[in-house]
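Incident log, support desk, overnight shift.

02:14 A customer reports that sequence design results differ from what the structure should imply. Their input is reproduced verbatim below. On-call engineer (initials T.W.) acknowledged and began investigating.
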């Protein structure tokens, strides 16, 4: 029998935010011990969202405990298991998800290394055991946010039955999960038409890939015509594109011109709060169609009330996803239904290269791309 792997070191390197006005800094920090209900993961690749600098140091300034090790999701290996771990094994390849919920109250929710949540319960989680994120060599997380990955199938060489995906490409899984939660929540079916806006960003572009994998036809809606053309080309005849003009009348007519829209999926950023595209998209949805709102708009928006009522339209808000969605998406990847080979890795950075890494993520954040830290 092979000997068990050595335990994690007592300390490790991490990228630490000590204040909103100070640069991030590399520090040697204690490796967190395993406690019941937790697991320690060695981080192989941690994605960097395009607005990370703004969220941590800029205008977005998400509520977080400080000091903090940022970083949301990761691809890694199991480094240490606790007394109640029943299936995960040391060195096993896994996905680490950032959505952490209270075990006794699912409405208490936080995002690992990114957002402390809005309730007192979520702050107990984010200021306690699950304070620090994945921009480090090791991270401790709840067992339920870790999903095992079939390493041989996903990373293996194609001539040996594998898919030949790189670990860094697999880090793009996190962006896929967000729209998958929304598309699944409104029951997208094979053969349906899904209007996606904005389809040119990281999450919107991921929504296009996921909707196609779910068997839908996609209408990709956005302002960047060159990115839209790339999305259309990758759609293999199942993607139609629309250029968002910002003119309500023109955009409404354009949406109606694509034919029957079963689902309108929107994941707009805060900057879209005054855009009329939400109204135009809803006006284009068929009788008894569905609308899913997942974006970051915090302000009130106009809803065409009469149209929603008389067309029997369902509008559903959705924040993130649940454990079943995570395992279902991994199954789609392992089955070859959702390809990760097309994910474009725009940069692989060491933790000490954080400034360049955040800049590259900000400048290249778009459909189908990912920038990662490799601690």
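02:41 Re-run completed on a clean worker. Output:
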């Amino acid at each position: 029998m092979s000997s068990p792997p050595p335990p994690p070191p007592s300390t490790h390197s991490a990228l630490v935010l000590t204040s909103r006005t100070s640069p991030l800094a590399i520090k040697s920090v204690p490796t967190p011990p395993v406690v019941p209900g937790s697991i320690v993961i060695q981080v192989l690749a941690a994605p960097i969202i395009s607005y990370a600098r703004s969220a941590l140091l800029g205008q977005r300034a998400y509520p977080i405990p400080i000091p903090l090790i940022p970083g949301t999701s990761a691809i890694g290996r199991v480094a240490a298991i606790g007394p109640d771990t029943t299936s995960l094994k040391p060195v096993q390849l896994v996905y680490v998800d950032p959505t952490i919920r209270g075990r006794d109250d699912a409405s208490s929710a936080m995002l690992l290394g990114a957002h402390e949540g809005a309730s007192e319960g979520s702050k107990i989680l984010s200021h306690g055991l699950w304070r620090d994120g994945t921009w480090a060599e090791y991270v401790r997380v709840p067992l339920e946010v870790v999903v095992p990955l079939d390493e041989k199938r996903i990373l293996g060489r194609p001539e040996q039955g594998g898919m030949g995906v790189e670990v860094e490409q697999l880090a793009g899984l996190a962006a896929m999960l967000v729209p998958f939660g929304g598309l699944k929540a409104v029951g997208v079916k094979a053969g349906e038409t899904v209007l996606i806006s904005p389809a040119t960003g990281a999450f919107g572009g991921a929504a296009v890939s996921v909707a196609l994998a779910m068997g839908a036809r996609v209408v990709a809606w956005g302002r960047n015509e060159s990115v839209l053309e790339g999305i259309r080309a990758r759609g293999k005849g199942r993607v139609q594109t629309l250029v968002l003009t910002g003119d309500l009348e023109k955009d409404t007519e354009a949406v109606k011109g694509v034919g029957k829209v079963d689902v309108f999926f929107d994941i707009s950023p805060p900057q879209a709060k005054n855009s009329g595209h939400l109204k135009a998209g809803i006006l284009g949805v068929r009788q008894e169609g569905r609308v899913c709102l997942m974006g970051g708009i915090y302000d009130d928006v106009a809803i065409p009330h009469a149209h929603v009522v008389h067309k029997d339209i369902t509008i559903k808000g959705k924040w993130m996803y649940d454990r079943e969605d995570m395992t279902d998406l991994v199954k789609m990847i392992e089955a070859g239904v959702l390809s990760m080979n097309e994910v474009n890795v725009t940069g692989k950075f060491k933790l000490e290269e954080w400034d360049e890494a955040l800049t590259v993520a900000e400048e290249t954040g778009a459909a189908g791309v990912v920038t990662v830290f490799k601690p």
